[in-house]
Amino acid sequence: MAKTSSTPSRRSSPASAKRRPASSTTQRGPLAVGIVVVAIAAIITALVLIKVNGSTSSTTTVDQAVPVSIFKAVTHVPATALAQAGYSSAIPLTEKITGAPASLTQGGKPEVLFIGADYCPFCAAERWPLISALSKFGTFSNLHLMKSSASDAYANTHTFTFYKSSYTSKYISFVPVEWSTNQTTTSSNNFSGYSILQPPSKAQLKLFTKYDAAPYTTTTGAIPFIDFGNRYLQIGASYTPQVLSGLNWTTIAGALSLPTSSAGQAIDQTTNVIIATICKMTGDQPGNVCGTPTIKSITSQLGG
């Protein structure tokens, strides 16, 4: 069994059909055989938040296309905000895969493989910086709003779903797998007690089984699972979903330009780590993204 503690886990395992209580800090998987400015600045910050929050959450619902204002905020985080956020050890670096595995590619480009699920609050938290980072290298379309499970830990964490979305880039390929919905089911054909949505392919499941285990994680089968070209791994959320508690899509999106806020700092610092990891895959291209002091500093720490 997975160890539990009073500190919320940054990892959510894809649990078996028999689920743990929502207060549990971990969830085992079926493969577990599973982070004083001056008064004027404060006023400006407040005005920005008011402007961003002018649209209420009552007009945004799960499964609808992401509104333009939210989409723009998460896919065009200012370089100045990312530079201000920088990096701190509160956010874990992606882990280098040992040995010399075959490169993970698609269409002749390095592949970023994401395996998560709509119910998962840890996946919900990690999608924000992942979308922000990937948007520095390419373009998303058909993203939809999503909330994590209403009956799991960090219930109803506001996020997105990659299901049926698309991504284009001349630098990398992005392949997302949303294993299940956020709706529970009594069917024996389930993932973590939720309705199956997009099961991984045999090749994806092979990578998940191989790398979502020791020595890369102590929680076998944890999600989210992100494989960066078979060179680096991110297993579990980089920050606790508690940071997003009580915040709607509009508020979180607005925080991305305000790295002094708790949500903005956690997401922006994670964004920087993901950008740096992707830059290791692309040979530091594009230069305007990979050549900033913050990103160069992080890439030097990644090694490999």
Keywords for this entry:
single chain; 304 residues; alpha+beta; 6-stranded mixed sheet; 9 helices; globular; disordered N terminus
Quaternary state of this entry equals single chain
Nearest-angstrom radius of gyration?
18 Å
Query: Which consecutive residue ranges, at least 5 long each, have pLDDT under 50?
Result: 1-9, 15-59
- Can you tell me the number of structural domains? 1
Number of helices: 9
Q: Major sheet: size, sense and barrel closure?
A: 6 strands, mixed
**Beta-strand residue fraction:** 15-25%
Give the averaged pLDDT, no decimals.
85
Shape: globular
N-to-C CA distance: 33 Å
Which range best describes the helical content: under 10%, 10-25%, 25-40%, 40-55%, 55-70% or over 70%? 25-40%
How many strands in all? 13
Order of helices and strands: HHHEEEHEEEEEEEEHEEHHHH
Structural class: alpha+beta
Please describe what this structure looks like.
With 304 residues, this protein is α+β, with helices and mostly antiparallel strands. Helices cover 31% and strands 16% of the residues. The chain has one domain (39-302). It has nine helices and 13 strands. The strands form four sheets. Strands 1, 2, 3, 8, 12 and 13 form a six-stranded mixed beta sheet that branches. Strand 10 (190-191) and strand 11 form a beta hairpin. Helix 2 (68-75) packs parallel to helix 6 (249-255), helix 4 packs across helix 7 (262-282) and helix 7 (262-282) crosses helix 9.
